[in-house]
Amino acid sequence: MAYKAVCFDIDGTLYPIGIMNRRLLRIGMAHPLFNLRYRRNRKQLRLFQKDYRKAIPFRWREAMVIQNRTGAEPAGGFDEKDYRSTYGRLEKWVYRPMERLYRSTKPFDGVRETFEKIRLHGLKIGVFTDFPLFEKLKGMGIDDLVDFAASSDDACFLKPDAHCFEYLLYNLKMDAKDVLYVGDSYSKDIMGASAAGLDAVLVNVRPSEMKDASGRFPLAKAVFCSWNDFDKWLTAILEDD
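-> structure tokens emitted (241 positions)
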């Protein structure tokens, strides 16, 4: 199939996930209670967001209040003072430190070369990630090759909600059949992209999970252990087109 764009997750897809986990751990240790509530309620939000989508306009900053307020219910309304306090802590304790850390991040070997190859074949490159973009693309030295980048802050939904990928398609002005999505999480990237009608490729899978990969990851168009293996496959696809 001739694609018009290749789109990517960032964390764990373009650079090792261990880097992000170490940075989150460092920040979490500084504010452990806030971190625990944030992680717990972020998981809950993935369950709540389907009801939000059906019931009310979903505003991301309001969602952050839910993520970080103990015992909050999605239909319970929002307190302006609580919102300002919670979002202020999120900005100060999580977002600003993460932004500083991401000013220098080394991607997997070959990422820039793959991006250059995609552009050389006339395809666009998009990025969609759950966590804020910060300076990740610039820090990895690939921001000049990306046509469109967004995060859940922009789309107001977390992956795997199909709205995330619909938001990506809308801004690229393309149909689902035109876009290949690449990610490292089967439950978030592959299932979410597939629900929106996109072909999806799973990368950076553990070697032990490659046995019966088609059975483990039935919605993935292809599954790879390394960036190099993915690059070889993608090169063949581009040259066939």
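Confidence is low (pLDDT under 50) at residues 68-80.
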